[in-house]
Protein 1
Amino acid sequence: MARDAGAFAEFVAARSGALHRTAYLMVGEHALAQDLLQEALTKTYVAWPRLREVTNAEAYTRRAITTTAISWRRRKSWHEQPHDELPDRIAAPQVDTDTRAWVWAALQQLPPRQRAAVVLRYYEDLTEAQTAAAMGCAVGTVKSQVAQAIKKLREHLGRDADLLPLDELAVTR
């Protein structure tokens, strides 16, 4: 398939909202999500002639979002944020009583691959096989990453985590 700018533009117009949501869930900030989506769409555009079917474009872009988000989070500077004043001590994060904020705060604490696995499986409702394809790993790795993530979420949320059914993780922000 030759590079077709019109077909790519249609794809972006139709799917950019859902892809931005995925990017936001991966990085937790709107501006970073826009940057992440832009980078993933650039990679998709470059690969556009190699895609056998246009229907593969979304899966390709999701994988680009996932792998790019993971590589961004591995960078040392990812966690560094400038401040005018240094705090005397680090304050514990405040957990809102609203379930969404509560789960969201816990999700932010997960390592990049675990967070990606949870986002793709429960927020994006992908199958284990689709999640594995997006992450570029085996289905067993997805199962392992999700299990470890759920364990960490339960530890972070404490005894109240048992009140949440697993489907509750799929609440959108």
Protein 2
Amino acid sequence: MASEQSEIPRRSLFGLNAANFLQAEMVGVILPLLNGYLKQAGWRYDSLGVATAIGGLGALIFQAPAGWLIDKLTCRRAIFAVAAVLTGVCFVAIPLAPRVPVWIDSLLFASGAAQTLFGPVLAALALGLASHSRLNRVMGANQSWNHAGNIAAALLAMAVVSALGLSSVFYSVGLCSLLAAASMLLIRDGDIDEQVAAGLTRGEEAKPSWKHLLHNRTVLFLFLSIFMFHLANAPILPTVALYVKKLGGSDNLMTATVLTAQIVMVPVALFAGRLCDSWGRKPVLAIAFWVLPLRIFTYSLATTPSAVVWLQALDGIGAGIYGVAVAAVSADLTKGKGGFNTLMGLFATAVAVGGVAGPLLSGVCVQHLGFRVTFYAFAALAGLGAAVFSWLVPDTARLNEQSAVAPAADLGMVEEGL
């Protein structure tokens, strides 16, 4: 297995990057295209919001258990492969099933549940392969490959949709799911330190309880700010895709809303890992939080489809940072304690709660109040989440440094961020 000083095995690192790339290739553009597909079938905006929320509900219910499971089990590569194939099957079934809510919502629920395993597994493999000292750089590379996969997915979708129609994109997801599962064969078991992958340091005995996470005020404030961030963020991409269509944009221009953001995310994610080391976690993650309300508000000022697509570049900044920085924060808060994947699952639960509530709220707002008022409301929500993060969450890298030198009697206060 890799040590702190040894070079990270190239084959396993390539397999991990490939898994990130192909996982994004599977699901990168499916949501806005799914909404367009169902809109063509005569679905109302609020019905589209419910369908999106149902997929988020599957993620919400299973996200925290998924993180806990990945902490407990070591067959992480097999878990990822099974989740990838199951997700592919769900999306391939969508154009084959009747386009009525009971069928579509059930498939989206199952796919949402399966996708809860992707984040914790990939983060655990990165930590077990790279160790704490090199996690940020490896996560930056992983997230760059993930966003590159989204770019490839958008380009592929534009090609197949132009040639074969919207339904063809679901079959491409099925193919990518098989390739994603196969990428796990490149990662060797011996290269993964299973203790480090769970958040422990090398040689430590596993700690059975993760309840310390629920008593940590930094964790609770982070959970709240992440929830508000994604309550505002989750419905915006599909809403923007529908806005592009309302303004007269084509299916390809609707797909380009994903492509524009992902092009920006690739370099941002790569640099985010380095900046988390040099600047600290909080200032880097704060950029992601504050870009979101600015981005949502500016959509209300756009009057042409092309302007909306260009504004999606701001999404690339926030999303490019978030995927890297949240793993760095989770590693800081669980180092030497265990529960890394459980904490990742808790934060992903906050994302999933936003993923359920946000689309429901946005669907109703768009249907009854219009796009502009919807953008105003969600920009305000995003600003509130950014304020909570900025005022109440400390820099977790500094907390780790303090806990390394604090007297034993003071460790509890350091962990609480007091």
Protein 3
Amino acid sequence: MLRFKALLATLVVAGVAAGVATAGVTQNDVNQTTAFSVFVPCANGGAGENVSGTIDLHILTTATVNGNNVSGKSHFQPQGSSLLGEVTGDTYQATGVTQETFKGSLQNGQFTDTFVNNFRIIGHGPGNNFLVHEVTHITINANGDVTVTFDNFSADCK
């Protein structure tokens, strides 16, 4: 929620400073290399191990202020990776997509935010793939009441 409030404040100030009713910002980083480390519990014959290295991410973010509304989206998708098991030296690939969308009113405070994460660390051979899935959502009405909230998270080895 703090991320949204900071983004909302930035967009409002930018819109007012520019003196425009409609403002849109798109940032498209086609290939950003990021250091990455995760514990894969099913790796190393079921004993688990840390898998680390780098991931090349495609990152797309948008934000729009239009009239009395603000909305945006973020999208993170691995485009390549170089990941190694720290014990076995096995190689892994990162796949999946993580995205978030939000929409809010600058008049009455209504707000919705949905976050979806489908992230996979895929190893060679059977039984060492680590799958993370999460969906979270929040809806706030014009009175400031949270009317919907949920977080559905799972992490599995396949």
